């Protein structure tokens, strides 16, 4: 594919987008069911492509974590198909109407939701994202350009082949789901210059990838750099509840962006709460980086270092700081937070309200686990990404975030 | 100001933004009234600064149009103050709550509207934008960095001085409304790299400026390149209505982005409608660029050239094309439209619905003038800009477009 040009890829996707923008919900759901069926039928072909890539990845000394993400099994392929069937059940945001007003001159103003057009997903070696993002973009009436990590391209192409069969059955162009078949970085760079054809870029992966895309894209980018989530245990917290939120946030699945990375404890709770924390973390083998006001409670804890605040450990490891009061907790989050998810545990509604109103984060929780900061848990049905910048979407993004609203004005010949 | 750094300006604005984000609507309205009063009181100082800049601009052979935009009079300053008083009357989007759902596990999810943070406006020599954008950003809880054209900096500083007095009266930092006092292009370039501090850039001006800002910004940009608005006169149009919409769109104020630039006429209406158009355009001295199917109706019309389609004349000048049918009209708009405003004149609801659903534009009108495509006319109360790209906002942007929604989750200790 040496002659492959980003402009051609993008222009073809933009053309294909027009073919899906005006499909009815029913039509889109039929196609999605065909996609799920086709992926199931293609299980042998997908596994063959995947085995070859796994072998290659092992030969390249790929990390165990990446090998796990890359690995498909018949069960994982079935999950992919089921995920598409769940997307069929989601409400279609496209076409929804919102009456604004009838002006004194009689013109009637409403807003109607339309697809964005072409979404470009840039992600690492996760073949399931290919099916998932392809289906979510399709359900919201968009075309998608999928640029996955080089380790998973053949597996992604096998999955996309199945989706293309489904598109062809319904006389839709295969460019509705476009896989970039070449991992060349220059091609990616060219792709994110195509603001004439591409409406949104969603990078998913490490901070370096997201920074590279943001710095070089002409197309608007949804950014999700990292999740450094704090739990603040207030003076009026229920300490048993606080301990449950802490353990759930740190231990249940430490490698995800909505896991807790820092515990802030009100000074009046420190003497009671920190021994409870120390015992639980010993049992769960959580490594502690403790401030000087808390370290005496933790045997073998590391004294806090400058880099520990704001650190995304993604591991059973946490920073702990005792703070004077709510204001000090909010000042800490202001300095070290990542605009992702922040939690307060308190029985005092006034403290909760202050925290909710003043902390700058996409998701603010009161007496609930940071682990709920997820499209599925927040009722979006599915998640295409999480935005930690405020434009367009802030927080977990569902189907609606892949659409926009336009004005529709109806009159009887009115002029100004 | 040789030591002025973009990072310092932006960091100070970001700090100031925190001081306004949590003000109540009442507090913000008090400050806005003080701003209006202070601008009225500062009329002599503003006029002095403006006279000096006008003299300088005349010495530099500035165009008459720009001189007019630059010129302030006591009446224009009074209008500025009144515009701020109108902004007081607008509903405050910040803090509005939207219940999403209570999940089966009992957590309660809502969305609450918050300010974006820091808005950077980049505009040409229009001193009124200083007051207007300053007040709109303030009302929506944001700080603003105003970078106006070099010809109007002293006038803008005089206006901002008055606004700063009002801020000081209410113990608010003057960086809430920051004027970039140096027209240096490198400083602007540095400013739009400050994505750590600035949340949104809104360039208002020529296509070159907007392209420059889009190509070089790390901060998300709201783009409004141009308005190439079409009127399609359908087979079932009321021709008297069509003529009124045409004249209003082309003649009432040709220099604005929601003026009509191209008339598309259904072939079955051409013989009846084009003579009406020819007569009216003769009376209003509108220059016509006509396609080969329409030129016989227009004495002295220019034959259409390739560049005429998609041209933003911003003058009493128009392109005219006869098209076979609705599909041909939509294909024309698809090729030459600018995603701004498109109008269909028809008595046939099915044609109107097809046009509304399929034409890609921020504002689609049925039997109403393109000139209504404006924040005020569409009920937004005021307009900070018009977006012709789909992310975040599409079409005229009011106060709500200067805010975003975050998730707020309340529980009783729920975990996953």
Low-confidence stretches of chain A: none
Q: Helix coverage percent of residues of chain A?
A: 40-55%
- What is the 3D shape of chain A? globular
The CATH architecture of the largest domain in chain A is: 3-Layer(aba) Sandwich
Q: Largest interface here, residues on each chain?
A: A-B, 69 and 69 residues
Q: What structural class is derived from the secondary structure elements of chain A? A: alpha/beta
Give the helix tally of chain A: 13
Name the CATH class of the largest domain in chain A: Alpha Beta
Q: Kindly report the oligomeric state of this protein.
A: homodimer
Number of domains of chain A: 2
Cα-atom Rg of chain A, whole angstroms? 24 Å
Ends distance of chain A: 55 Å
A few lines on this structure:
2 copies of one chain form a homodimer. Chain A has helices at residues 6-21, 25-41, 43-59, 64-70, 74-89, 127-139, 153-169, 185-191, 207-216, 239-251, 267-284, 326-336, 349-358, and strands at 97-102, 108-115, 118-123, 143-147, 177-179, 200-204, 229-233, 260-266, 287-290, 302-303, 317-323, 341-345, 363-368, 385-387, 395-397, 403-414. By secondary structure, chain A is an alpha/beta fold.
């Amino acid at each position: 594919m040496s002659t492959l040009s980003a402009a051609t890829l993008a222009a073809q996707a933009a053309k294909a987008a027009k073919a899906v923008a005006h499909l009815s919900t029913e039509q889109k759901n039929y196609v999605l069911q065909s996609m799920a069926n086709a992926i199931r039928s293609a299980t042998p072909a997908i596994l063959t492509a995947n085995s070859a890539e796994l072998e290659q990845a092992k030969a390249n000394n790929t990390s165990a974590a990446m090998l796990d993400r890359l690995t498909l099994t018949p069960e994982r392929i079935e999950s992919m198909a089921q995920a598409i069937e769940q997307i069929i059940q989601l409400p279609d945001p496209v076409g929804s109407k919102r009456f604004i007003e009838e002006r004194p001159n009689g013109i009637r103003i409403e807003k109607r939701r339309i697809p964005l057009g072409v979404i470009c997903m840039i992600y690492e070696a996760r073949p399931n994202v290919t099916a998932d993002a392809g289906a979510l973009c399709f359900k919201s009436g968009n075309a998608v350009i999928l640029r996955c990590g080089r380790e998973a391209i053949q597996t992604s192409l096998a999955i996309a082949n199945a989706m293309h069969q489904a598109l062809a059955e319904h006389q839709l162009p295969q460019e509705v789901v476009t896989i970039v078949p070449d991992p060349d970085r220059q091609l990616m760079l060219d792709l994110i210059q195509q603001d004439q054809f591409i409406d949104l870029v969603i990078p998913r992966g490490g901070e370096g990838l997201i920074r590279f895309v943001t710095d070089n894209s002409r197309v608007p980018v949804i950014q999700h750099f990292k999740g450094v989530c704090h739990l603040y245990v207030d003076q009026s917290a229920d300490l048993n509840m606080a301990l449950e939120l802490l353990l759930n946030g740190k231990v249940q699945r430490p490698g995800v962006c909505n896991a807790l990375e820092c515990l802030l404890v009100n000074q009046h709770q420190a003497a009671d709460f920190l021994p409870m924390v120390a015992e639980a973390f010993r049992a769960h083998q959580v490594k502690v980086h403790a401030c000087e006001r808390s370290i005496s409670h933790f045997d073998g804890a590391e004294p806090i270092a400058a880099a520990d605040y704001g650190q995304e450990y993604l591991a059973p490891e946490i920073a702990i700081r005792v703070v004077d009061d709510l204001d000090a907790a909010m000042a800490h989050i202001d300095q070290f937070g990542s605009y992702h998810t922040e939690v307060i545990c308190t029985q005092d509604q006034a403290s909760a309200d202050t925290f909710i109103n003043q902390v700058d984060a996409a998701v603010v929780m009161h007496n609930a686990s940071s682990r709920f900061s997820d499209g599925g848990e927040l009722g979006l049905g599915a998640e295409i990404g999480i935005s930690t910048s405020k434009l367009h979407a802030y927080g977990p993004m569902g189907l609606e975030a892949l659409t926009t609203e336009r004005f529709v004005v109806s009159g009887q010949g009115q002029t100004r």
